[in-house]
Amino acid sequence: MQPAEIEAALAAALRGAGPAGEVRGLRRLTGGATKETWCFDWHQPGTSGTLILQRSAATAAPPGHPPRLDAGQDAALMRAARQGGVPVPTVRLVLQPQHGLGPGYVTGHVAGETMGRKLARDSAFAMARGRLARQCGEALAAIHRMPTAELPFLARLAPADELAIYGGLLRDHAIAHPALAYALRWVGQHLPQQWDARVVHADFRNGNLIVDQQGLRCVLDWEIARIGDPMQDLGVLCMRTWRFGGTGEVGGFGTREDLYAAYEAAGGMPVDPARVRFWEAFGNLKWAIACVRRGLGARADGRPASLELCAVGRRLEEPLWDFMHLLETAP
Q1: At how many degrees (to 10) do helices 256-265 and 273-295 cross?
Q2: CA distance 126 to 63
Q3: Number of domains in the chain
Q4: Fewer CB in 10 Å around end: N or C, the chain?
Q5: pTM for this prediction
Q6: What is the pLDDT of residue 298?
Q7: Among residues 45, 79, 108, which one ends one of the domains?
Q8: What is the DSSP letter of 212?
């Protein structure tokens, strides 16, 4: 759709959900691997505000792939998270077929920065970095307290289920790589046998957070959430890939001690550092498999999908090195 068509359809959808208004300044934002994100101003008599339009793909995750929420489920999860005290955008409208915009939703705009490298390294966020690990611990505790029974659309994945899914994705590409084979075998031999089934964001990391100079403002990108081991979220947040060159083991901005202490103090599960390390290692394996899939992605005519995806594919060795380093330095 052209911007003018989106603007007209969006204005009609919002007018149908509340008082009449006018869409102004519609502009597409950069970033977002699975969604199309637009920012705009919604003007009504006597008031105006900035809103966000998220348009997502209409296709569901194929069988044997990691779960992916549709737009309605994504919005429902964010509403439940907000009710549970998690900092998330306010969902204003879930798009319906009659709106003519495809799957998606409209949320409030949250001011701040999302670029991981800036958050981990720029002097403007030095004060925020002193708080972020604790704030992330508090947000994760709130996520893991969410009642699972009220979210029946979330898939339940045991650690063994996760391994079966990601191992299957790698087998689909028929790639032989000794380090990948070793990592798969190691994960299979160290699967947690006891864990509490909780809501898991599954992509809670630097780069999926909105932060200002005071700290955490908002948690983004909920579309691969699931029911699983809550230690997974702590492990993903500690992955070196998502530190963006920062010195802190947590997101490049903080310490594990601050993260774990704040998480437990806010009502999270007792932290099992060994299980967190397992999920950090497994997270590196998942990212390595994602690099393989992106690098080998092809168009219908057999040509590479894009130069950018080929470049991601070349990063395969980075998470594998991180995986091996974690095993070598484990307590």
Answers
A1: 110
A2: 44
A3: 2
A4: C
A5: 0.93
A6: 62
A7: 108
A8: E
